[in-house]
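C-alpha coordinates please, single chain.
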Amino acid sequence: MLITLIAIVSAAFVTVFLTFGPFARSESWRATVTPLASIIGSGFLICGPILAREFGRAAIIAEALLLAIAYAAGWVIRFNIVHVENYLADAGVHDRIAWLARITQGVLALAYAISVAYYLKLLAEFLLKPVAIDPAWHAAASNGIVTGLILLIIALSLGSGLRRVEHLAHGTVSLKIGIIAGLLVALAAWWLTNAAADPLPPAKLSWNSIGLLLGLVITVQGFETSRYLGHAYSQEMRIRTMKHAQWIASAIYLLFLALLTPFLSRAAEAEGVAGILDIMSLVAPALGIFVLIGALSSQLSAAVADSIGSGGLMSEVTRRKLGVQAAFALAGALAIAVVWLTDPFEVVAISSRAFALFYALQCMLAFAVARSTGAGSLMHRIGFLSVGLVCIVAVLVGAPAEG
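Here you go.
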Protein backbone atom coordinates (compact mmCIF):
# COMPACT_ATOMS: atom_id res chain seq x y z
CA MET A 1 0.00 0.00 0.00
CA LEU A 2 2.85 2.37 0.87
CA ILE A 3 4.59 1.73 -2.45
CA THR A 4 1.35 2.39 -4.34
CA LEU A 5 0.84 5.67 -2.45
CA ILE A 6 4.41 6.75 -3.18
CA ALA A 7 3.91 5.95 -6.87
CA ILE A 8 0.66 7.95 -7.07
CA VAL A 9 2.14 10.99 -5.33
CA SER A 10 5.26 10.90 -7.52
CA ALA A 11 3.23 10.53 -10.70
CA ALA A 12 0.93 13.42 -9.73
CA PHE A 13 3.86 15.69 -8.82
CA VAL A 14 5.74 15.07 -12.09
CA THR A 15 2.58 15.42 -14.19
CA VAL A 16 1.67 18.75 -12.58
CA PHE A 17 5.25 20.01 -12.82
CA LEU A 18 5.51 19.15 -16.53
CA THR A 19 2.09 20.64 -17.24
CA PHE A 20 2.32 23.88 -15.27
CA GLY A 21 6.06 24.28 -14.61
CA PRO A 22 7.85 27.47 -15.70
CA PHE A 23 9.42 25.78 -18.73
CA ALA A 24 6.35 23.75 -19.76
CA ARG A 25 5.26 26.21 -22.44
CA SER A 26 8.75 27.14 -23.62
CA GLU A 27 9.64 26.58 -27.26
CA SER A 28 12.56 24.37 -26.25
CA TRP A 29 10.37 22.01 -24.22
CA ARG A 30 7.71 21.83 -26.96
CA ALA A 31 10.40 20.91 -29.48
CA THR A 32 11.72 18.24 -27.07
CA VAL A 33 8.32 16.74 -26.29
CA THR A 34 7.51 15.73 -29.88
CA PRO A 35 10.46 13.33 -30.37
CA LEU A 36 10.40 12.34 -26.69
CA ALA A 37 6.75 11.30 -26.86
CA SER A 38 7.52 9.23 -29.96
CA ILE A 39 10.52 7.47 -28.40
CA ILE A 40 8.87 6.66 -25.08
CA GLY A 41 5.96 4.50 -26.08
CA SER A 42 5.50 1.11 -24.53
CA GLY A 43 8.88 0.08 -25.88
CA PHE A 44 10.60 0.40 -22.53
CA LEU A 45 7.88 -1.82 -21.01
CA ILE A 46 8.29 -4.71 -23.45
CA CYS A 47 12.10 -4.55 -23.60
CA GLY A 48 12.60 -5.67 -19.99
CA PRO A 49 11.06 -9.15 -20.24
CA ILE A 50 12.34 -9.74 -23.78
CA LEU A 51 15.94 -8.77 -23.00
CA ALA A 52 15.89 -10.63 -19.67
CA ARG A 53 14.80 -13.80 -21.47
CA GLU A 54 17.42 -13.50 -24.19
CA PHE A 55 20.41 -11.90 -22.42
CA GLY A 56 19.93 -12.77 -18.74
CA ARG A 57 21.90 -10.52 -16.41
CA ALA A 58 23.49 -8.85 -19.45
CA ALA A 59 20.08 -7.36 -20.36
CA ILE A 60 21.05 -3.83 -19.37
CA ILE A 61 24.22 -4.03 -21.50
CA ALA A 62 22.09 -5.12 -24.45
CA GLU A 63 19.71 -2.21 -23.82
CA ALA A 64 22.64 0.22 -23.68
CA LEU A 65 23.91 -1.12 -27.01
CA LEU A 66 20.47 -0.68 -28.59
CA LEU A 67 20.29 2.91 -27.32
CA ALA A 68 23.81 3.57 -28.64
CA ILE A 69 22.73 2.41 -32.11
CA ALA A 70 19.72 4.73 -31.90
CA TYR A 71 21.92 7.65 -30.80
CA ALA A 72 24.28 7.01 -33.71
CA ALA A 73 21.31 7.08 -36.12
CA GLY A 74 20.22 10.31 -34.43
CA TRP A 75 23.69 11.76 -35.03
CA VAL A 76 23.29 11.10 -38.77
CA ILE A 77 19.85 12.71 -38.84
CA ARG A 78 21.14 15.74 -36.92
CA PHE A 79 23.76 16.17 -39.65
CA ASN A 80 20.99 15.94 -42.25
CA ILE A 81 18.86 18.56 -40.49
CA VAL A 82 21.48 21.12 -41.50
CA HIS A 83 23.28 19.86 -44.58
CA VAL A 84 20.64 17.82 -46.42
CA GLU A 85 17.92 20.39 -45.76
CA ASN A 86 20.15 23.21 -47.04
CA TYR A 87 21.12 21.18 -50.11
CA LEU A 88 17.52 20.27 -50.97
CA ALA A 89 16.41 23.89 -50.63
CA ASP A 90 18.41 24.71 -53.79
CA ALA A 91 18.28 21.33 -55.58
CA GLY A 92 16.28 20.78 -58.76
CA VAL A 93 13.40 18.34 -59.01
CA HIS A 94 15.49 15.80 -60.94
CA ASP A 95 18.61 16.09 -58.78
CA ARG A 96 19.76 12.57 -57.83
CA ILE A 97 20.01 13.47 -54.15
CA ALA A 98 16.51 14.99 -54.30
CA TRP A 99 15.27 11.68 -55.74
CA LEU A 100 16.99 9.76 -52.94
CA ALA A 101 15.36 12.09 -50.41
CA ARG A 102 11.91 11.38 -51.88
CA ILE A 103 12.56 7.63 -51.78
CA THR A 104 13.60 8.04 -48.14
CA GLN A 105 10.34 9.85 -47.41
CA GLY A 106 8.38 7.07 -49.10
CA VAL A 107 10.10 4.45 -46.96
CA LEU A 108 9.35 6.48 -43.84
CA ALA A 109 5.68 6.70 -44.85
CA LEU A 110 5.56 2.89 -45.12
CA ALA A 111 7.45 2.52 -41.83
CA TYR A 112 4.93 4.78 -40.09
CA ALA A 113 2.04 2.75 -41.51
CA ILE A 114 3.59 -0.48 -40.24
CA SER A 115 4.32 1.11 -36.88
CA VAL A 116 0.61 1.93 -36.49
CA ALA A 117 0.00 -1.82 -36.56
CA TYR A 118 2.79 -2.26 -33.99
CA TYR A 119 1.47 0.39 -31.62
CA LEU A 120 -2.15 -0.74 -31.76
CA LYS A 121 -1.27 -4.43 -31.57
CA LEU A 122 0.61 -3.71 -28.35
CA LEU A 123 -2.34 -1.65 -27.12
CA ALA A 124 -4.68 -4.59 -27.72
CA GLU A 125 -2.32 -7.00 -25.95
CA PHE A 126 -2.18 -4.79 -22.86
CA LEU A 127 -5.94 -4.27 -22.99
CA LEU A 128 -6.63 -8.02 -23.15
CA LYS A 129 -4.00 -9.03 -20.59
CA PRO A 130 -6.33 -8.67 -17.55
CA VAL A 131 -9.25 -10.30 -19.40
CA ALA A 132 -9.94 -14.03 -19.16
CA ILE A 133 -10.27 -15.09 -22.79
CA ASP A 134 -9.96 -18.46 -24.49
CA PRO A 135 -6.40 -18.63 -25.95
CA ALA A 136 -7.88 -19.96 -29.18
CA TRP A 137 -9.75 -16.66 -29.62
CA HIS A 138 -7.06 -14.33 -28.28
CA ALA A 139 -5.42 -13.50 -31.62
CA ALA A 140 -8.77 -12.90 -33.34
CA ALA A 141 -9.95 -10.65 -30.49
CA SER A 142 -6.70 -8.68 -30.52
CA ASN A 143 -6.72 -8.25 -34.30
CA GLY A 144 -10.39 -7.30 -34.24
CA ILE A 145 -9.74 -4.54 -31.69
CA VAL A 146 -6.84 -3.18 -33.74
CA THR A 147 -8.79 -3.28 -36.99
CA GLY A 148 -11.65 -1.38 -35.36
CA LEU A 149 -9.26 1.29 -34.05
CA ILE A 150 -7.59 1.72 -37.45
CA LEU A 151 -10.97 2.05 -39.16
CA LEU A 152 -11.92 4.66 -36.55
CA ILE A 153 -8.73 6.64 -37.26
CA ILE A 154 -9.48 6.52 -41.00
CA ALA A 155 -13.05 7.68 -40.35
CA LEU A 156 -11.79 10.56 -38.20
CA SER A 157 -9.40 11.60 -40.97
CA LEU A 158 -12.40 12.32 -43.20
CA GLY A 159 -13.28 15.28 -40.98
CA SER A 160 -11.58 17.40 -38.36
CA GLY A 161 -11.89 14.73 -35.67
CA LEU A 162 -8.38 13.40 -36.16
CA ARG A 163 -6.83 16.78 -35.35
CA ARG A 164 -8.77 16.93 -32.10
CA VAL A 165 -7.55 13.45 -31.22
CA GLU A 166 -3.99 14.50 -32.13
CA HIS A 167 -4.16 17.51 -29.79
CA LEU A 168 -5.53 15.29 -27.02
CA ALA A 169 -2.73 12.79 -27.63
CA HIS A 170 -0.08 15.50 -27.36
CA GLY A 171 -1.70 16.71 -24.16
CA THR A 172 -1.20 13.31 -22.53
CA VAL A 173 2.59 13.49 -22.76
CA SER A 174 2.97 14.98 -19.27
CA LEU A 175 0.66 12.32 -17.84
CA LYS A 176 2.62 9.57 -19.58
CA ILE A 177 5.95 10.79 -18.23
CA GLY A 178 4.36 11.23 -14.80
CA ILE A 179 3.19 7.60 -14.82
CA ILE A 180 6.67 6.47 -15.83
CA ALA A 181 8.14 8.48 -12.95
CA GLY A 182 5.66 6.81 -10.58
CA LEU A 183 6.75 3.36 -11.78
CA LEU A 184 10.44 4.19 -11.36
CA VAL A 185 9.93 5.56 -7.84
CA ALA A 186 7.84 2.50 -6.92
CA LEU A 187 10.60 0.16 -8.07
CA ALA A 188 13.18 2.19 -6.15
CA ALA A 189 10.97 2.00 -3.03
CA TRP A 190 10.81 -1.77 -3.42
CA TRP A 191 14.63 -1.87 -3.40
CA LEU A 192 14.69 0.05 -0.12
CA THR A 193 12.07 -2.11 1.61
CA ASN A 194 13.05 -5.60 0.38
CA ALA A 195 16.39 -7.19 1.03
CA ALA A 196 15.75 -10.41 -0.89
CA ALA A 197 15.76 -10.67 -4.65
CA ASP A 198 15.57 -13.46 -7.17
CA PRO A 199 18.91 -14.90 -8.31
CA LEU A 200 19.90 -13.24 -11.55
CA PRO A 201 19.68 -15.42 -14.67
CA PRO A 202 23.10 -16.10 -16.22
CA ALA A 203 24.34 -13.82 -18.97
CA LYS A 204 23.65 -15.24 -22.42
CA LEU A 205 24.79 -14.30 -25.90
CA SER A 206 24.52 -15.94 -29.31
CA TRP A 207 24.29 -14.95 -32.96
CA ASN A 208 20.51 -15.25 -32.67
CA SER A 209 20.65 -12.74 -29.81
CA ILE A 210 22.12 -10.12 -32.14
CA GLY A 211 19.24 -10.57 -34.56
CA LEU A 212 16.73 -10.25 -31.74
CA LEU A 213 18.39 -7.10 -30.42
CA LEU A 214 18.32 -5.48 -33.86
CA GLY A 215 14.70 -6.56 -34.12
CA LEU A 216 13.91 -4.18 -31.23
CA VAL A 217 14.97 -0.99 -33.02
CA ILE A 218 11.32 0.12 -33.11
CA THR A 219 11.30 0.39 -29.30
CA VAL A 220 13.87 3.22 -29.34
CA GLN A 221 12.67 4.88 -32.56
CA GLY A 222 10.97 8.27 -32.73
CA PHE A 223 13.78 10.83 -32.61
CA GLU A 224 13.62 11.24 -36.41
CA THR A 225 10.44 13.31 -36.02
CA SER A 226 12.68 16.33 -35.31
CA ARG A 227 13.88 16.10 -38.93
CA TYR A 228 10.39 17.05 -40.15
CA LEU A 229 9.60 19.92 -37.78
CA GLY A 230 11.31 22.56 -39.92
CA HIS A 231 8.03 24.44 -40.34
CA ALA A 232 7.91 25.09 -36.59
CA TYR A 233 11.48 25.19 -35.24
CA SER A 234 14.93 26.30 -36.34
CA GLN A 235 17.65 23.83 -37.26
CA GLU A 236 19.66 24.63 -34.14
CA MET A 237 16.60 24.13 -31.95
CA ARG A 238 15.73 20.78 -33.52
CA ILE A 239 19.29 19.48 -33.21
CA ARG A 240 19.57 20.47 -29.56
CA THR A 241 16.15 19.20 -28.53
CA MET A 242 16.57 15.89 -30.37
CA LYS A 243 19.69 15.31 -28.29
CA HIS A 244 17.77 16.16 -25.13
CA ALA A 245 14.94 13.79 -26.07
CA GLN A 246 17.36 10.92 -26.69
CA TRP A 247 19.24 11.61 -23.43
CA ILE A 248 16.03 11.67 -21.37
CA ALA A 249 14.62 8.56 -23.06
CA SER A 250 17.91 6.66 -22.66
CA ALA A 251 18.06 7.52 -18.95
CA ILE A 252 14.49 6.27 -18.47
CA TYR A 253 15.12 3.01 -20.37
CA LEU A 254 18.33 2.18 -18.50
CA LEU A 255 17.01 3.21 -15.09
CA PHE A 256 13.84 1.17 -15.56
CA LEU A 257 15.81 -1.94 -16.54
CA ALA A 258 18.30 -1.45 -13.71
CA LEU A 259 15.50 -1.14 -11.14
CA LEU A 260 13.86 -4.22 -12.66
CA THR A 261 16.98 -6.28 -11.91
CA PRO A 262 15.54 -8.13 -8.84
CA PHE A 263 12.73 -9.39 -11.07
CA LEU A 264 14.77 -10.41 -14.11
CA SER A 265 14.28 -14.12 -13.47
CA ARG A 266 10.52 -13.73 -13.37
CA ALA A 267 10.64 -11.23 -16.24
CA ALA A 268 12.37 -13.87 -18.35
CA GLU A 269 9.42 -16.19 -17.72
CA ALA A 270 6.74 -13.55 -18.44
CA GLU A 271 4.45 -14.50 -21.29
CA GLY A 272 3.54 -12.21 -24.16
CA VAL A 273 4.50 -8.62 -24.88
CA ALA A 274 2.34 -7.44 -21.96
CA GLY A 275 4.16 -9.65 -19.44
CA ILE A 276 5.46 -6.58 -17.59
CA LEU A 277 1.97 -6.26 -16.04
CA ASP A 278 2.64 -9.44 -14.07
CA ILE A 279 6.03 -8.17 -12.90
CA MET A 280 4.78 -4.78 -11.71
CA SER A 281 1.90 -6.43 -9.88
CA LEU A 282 4.51 -8.23 -7.77
CA VAL A 283 5.88 -4.86 -6.62
CA ALA A 284 2.39 -3.62 -5.71
CA PRO A 285 -0.92 -4.93 -7.08
CA ALA A 286 -2.19 -1.46 -8.04
CA LEU A 287 0.89 -0.79 -10.18
CA GLY A 288 -0.57 -3.06 -12.84
CA ILE A 289 -3.20 -0.35 -13.39
CA PHE A 290 -0.41 2.24 -13.68
CA VAL A 291 1.28 0.19 -16.37
CA LEU A 292 -2.01 -0.39 -18.18
CA ILE A 293 -2.91 3.33 -18.27
CA GLY A 294 0.59 4.30 -19.37
CA ALA A 295 0.70 1.63 -22.08
CA LEU A 296 -2.73 2.41 -23.51
CA SER A 297 -2.17 6.19 -23.62
CA SER A 298 1.32 5.76 -25.09
CA GLN A 299 0.23 3.40 -27.83
CA LEU A 300 -2.88 5.32 -28.83
CA SER A 301 -1.09 8.68 -29.03
CA ALA A 302 1.81 7.17 -30.99
CA ALA A 303 -0.57 5.41 -33.40
CA VAL A 304 -2.46 8.64 -34.10
CA ALA A 305 0.78 10.57 -34.64
CA ASP A 306 2.20 7.96 -37.01
CA SER A 307 -1.09 7.71 -38.91
CA ILE A 308 -0.90 11.44 -39.54
CA GLY A 309 2.77 11.19 -40.47
CA SER A 310 2.24 8.29 -42.85
CA GLY A 311 -0.74 9.84 -44.64
CA GLY A 312 0.97 13.21 -44.93
CA LEU A 313 4.22 11.76 -46.28
CA MET A 314 2.44 9.53 -48.82
CA SER A 315 0.56 12.54 -50.14
CA GLU A 316 3.74 14.64 -50.22
CA VAL A 317 5.84 11.97 -51.97
CA THR A 318 3.22 11.65 -54.74
CA ARG A 319 3.19 15.47 -55.07
CA ARG A 320 -0.42 15.60 -53.89
CA LYS A 321 -1.58 13.26 -56.67
CA LEU A 322 -2.71 11.05 -53.82
CA GLY A 323 -5.04 13.07 -51.63
CA VAL A 324 -4.47 13.16 -47.88
CA GLN A 325 -7.65 11.21 -47.15
CA ALA A 326 -6.80 8.57 -49.75
CA ALA A 327 -3.28 8.37 -48.29
CA PHE A 328 -4.74 7.80 -44.83
CA ALA A 329 -6.93 5.02 -46.19
CA LEU A 330 -3.96 3.40 -47.97
CA ALA A 331 -1.80 3.58 -44.84
CA GLY A 332 -4.66 2.13 -42.79
CA ALA A 333 -5.15 -0.74 -45.24
CA LEU A 334 -1.44 -1.60 -45.02
CA ALA A 335 -1.56 -1.48 -41.22
CA ILE A 336 -4.61 -3.80 -41.16
CA ALA A 337 -2.83 -6.26 -43.46
CA VAL A 338 0.22 -6.29 -41.18
CA VAL A 339 -2.03 -6.82 -38.14
CA TRP A 340 -3.68 -9.94 -39.53
CA LEU A 341 -0.53 -11.43 -41.06
CA THR A 342 1.73 -11.17 -38.00
CA ASP A 343 1.77 -11.94 -34.30
CA PRO A 344 2.78 -9.32 -31.69
CA PHE A 345 6.45 -10.34 -31.70
CA GLU A 346 6.68 -10.47 -35.49
CA VAL A 347 5.18 -7.00 -35.90
CA VAL A 348 7.88 -5.61 -33.57
CA ALA A 349 10.59 -7.06 -35.83
CA ILE A 350 8.92 -5.95 -39.08
CA SER A 351 8.49 -2.39 -37.78
CA SER A 352 12.12 -2.38 -36.67
CA ARG A 353 13.28 -3.47 -40.13
CA ALA A 354 11.23 -0.74 -41.79
CA PHE A 355 12.76 1.98 -39.63
CA ALA A 356 16.25 0.47 -39.95
CA LEU A 357 15.85 0.79 -43.74
CA PHE A 358 14.85 4.43 -43.32
CA TYR A 359 17.91 5.11 -41.14
CA ALA A 360 20.15 3.35 -43.69
CA LEU A 361 18.78 5.64 -46.42
CA GLN A 362 19.40 8.65 -44.15
CA CYS A 363 23.02 7.51 -43.93
CA MET A 364 23.18 7.32 -47.74
CA LEU A 365 21.77 10.86 -47.95
CA ALA A 366 24.31 12.16 -45.45
CA PHE A 367 27.20 10.50 -47.31
CA ALA A 368 26.01 11.75 -50.71
CA VAL A 369 25.59 15.35 -49.52
CA ALA A 370 28.93 15.25 -47.68
CA ARG A 371 30.69 14.13 -50.88
CA SER A 372 28.83 16.63 -53.06
CA THR A 373 29.31 19.70 -50.85
CA GLY A 374 32.46 18.84 -48.89
CA ALA A 375 30.54 19.10 -45.61
CA GLY A 376 31.93 17.19 -42.67
CA SER A 377 35.26 15.41 -42.36
CA LEU A 378 36.54 12.04 -43.56
CA MET A 379 35.60 10.64 -40.15
CA HIS A 380 32.04 11.86 -40.69
CA ARG A 381 31.81 9.88 -43.93
CA ILE A 382 33.29 6.78 -42.34
CA GLY A 383 30.75 7.20 -39.54
CA PHE A 384 27.86 7.48 -42.01
CA LEU A 385 28.95 4.28 -43.75
CA SER A 386 29.43 2.45 -40.45
CA VAL A 387 26.01 3.41 -39.06
CA GLY A 388 24.42 2.62 -42.42
CA LEU A 389 26.02 -0.83 -42.41
CA VAL A 390 24.61 -1.56 -38.94
CA CYS A 391 21.17 -0.46 -40.13
CA ILE A 392 21.37 -2.68 -43.21
CA VAL A 393 22.29 -5.63 -40.98
CA ALA A 394 19.23 -4.79 -38.86
CA VAL A 395 17.08 -4.86 -42.03
CA LEU A 396 18.45 -8.25 -43.02
CA VAL A 397 18.62 -10.10 -39.67
CA GLY A 398 16.28 -8.29 -37.27
CA ALA A 399 14.32 -11.16 -35.73
CA PRO A 400 11.12 -11.62 -33.68
CA ALA A 401 11.60 -12.17 -29.96
CA GLU A 402 9.71 -15.47 -30.10
CA GLY A 403 8.82 -18.07 -32.69
